[in-house]
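Kindly go through one protein, given below as sequence and tokens. The question is how this chain folds according to its tokens.

***
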Amino acid sequence: MTIAFESPDQPDVIALVADLDAYQDTLYPPESRHALDLASLKQPDVLFAVARNSEGQAIGCGAIVLRPEFGELKRMYVSPRGRGQGVARKLMALLESRAIALGCKLLKLETGPYQHEALALYASAGYERRGPFGDYTNDPLSVFMQKHIG
């Protein structure tokens, strides 16, 4: 497996993000989904990483949007064929390492209460629950977390 910073504008990565969207569509209504689109993922303030299996297929992705006071973890996803191999942890480690190198000291995220594996992963990686931040509002279908880094 390889994990590297790549452009999200690649057919297999676009398909991976579409799989994430389709999965979240089964869990949450549109008004409770706060996803970044492809154009947003290509902005200069976004770190975007892709995990690829030994055949070079995209099996996971994640992003951090760098803001002045914090970074926001977004678009974390590992396809079913890539699960159980530590892909998400390795993606987060690379993203956090780059964010630290760029001076980021705090990461925040929003996820949903029905994504039990994601909640467990974030908690085990040191993320703690907090209230809404930025433009988010209190929503029973949102869970907010943060982690001090660096």
Notes: The two ends are 26 Å apart (CA to CA). Helices lie at 11-25, 38-41, 87-101, 116-124. The chain has a mean pLDDT of 96. Residues 14 and 76 are 14 Å apart (CA to CA).
